[in-house]
């Protein structure tokens, strides 16, 4: 990491620090943020995590999760917090648009901004960066960040649990974006006492009855397979959200069921939100969904996992997606 000595100097004396991450924070966003928070607090800094919106309920067990400020619910508190931080760490996003109104506030701050992220094409809003698109997750990069500072010995079991959770979720239980380096890092986390079986249970085996019924609905009534494109689509309407009392995080992982079909290379989940229609894309092998998300749906992400959105409604979004599929047919069939 460049400028590591400058960052060491910044962190040499206690500072007021804010850590933020993207809207709809996932396991990596929350795991990396809480892991970094615990590390910085061990150095004597005052640290608060503030995010644009709520995270999934299955992450509520994580140490410090209950102290996270949520802009959507606590605007006054977050605005006051952002009046005078010395440093703002921006984790797991590459553009201030990803944090909505918080981004507008942070743009005008004189605070030092440090980016830690693994998404493509970061916008230059930061003073320092640790950016690596080959990393599995931002949690992996937070581990590297602490190591670069010479403080690997300060990674406690609790910090390790946070970082392991972020890595676990962003790699789909070690199915995507893995590397020899990552597994060596995970071995370090396990040696610190991380109980990987317990965390797997906390993250993946915590469904309510409504979740299983929702999975049944999606796979039986809302799935369409397009064999000529090796693609499968599932959808959810606003009415489905009301019927099943779907909350944030309840749809986590639904799109991955489609990839269990041996001939499906591209899996797509399109669902209505109050003001937008969201699209989640997953793929196998060398087929990249990042281009589809960026080029057609105002989004982005990773090679095998990306997302975006539209304002045209559910059916028109599904139709738009189908219309662009021929552009990618050859790559899908040859994968």
Write a compact overview of the structure shown.
This protein is an alpha/beta fold and 335 residues long. Helices cover 37% and strands 18% of the residues.
Could you name the ranges where pLDDT drops below 50 across 5 or more consecutive residues? none
The fraction of residues assigned to DSSP E strands is 15-25%
- Average pLDDT confidence is 94
CATH superfamily of the largest domain: inorganic pyrophosphatase (n-terminal core)
Explained architecture:
By secondary structure, the chain is of the alpha/beta class. The protein has two domains: 4-204, inorganic pyrophosphatase (n-terminal core) (Alpha-Beta Complex), CATH 3.90.1640.10; 209-333, Roll (Diaminopimelate Epimerase, Chain A, domain 1), CATH 3.10.310.30. The protein is built from 13 helices and twelve strands. It has helices at residues 4-10, 27-42, 75-81, 101-107, 138-148, 157-170, 180-191, 196-204, 209-221, 238-243, 290-296, 314-324, 329-333, and strands spanning 16-21, 46-51, 69-70, 87-91, 112-117, 128-131, 223-226, 231-236, 266-272, 277-283, 300-301, 305-310. Strands 3-2-1-4-5-6 form a six-stranded parallel sheet, with helices on both faces. A six-stranded mixed sheet has the order 7-8-9-10-12-11. α4 (101-107) links the parallel β4 and β5 (112-117). α5 packs antiparallel against α6. The longest helix is centred in the first third of the chain and has 16 residues, at 27-42. The chain is globular and about 60 Å long.
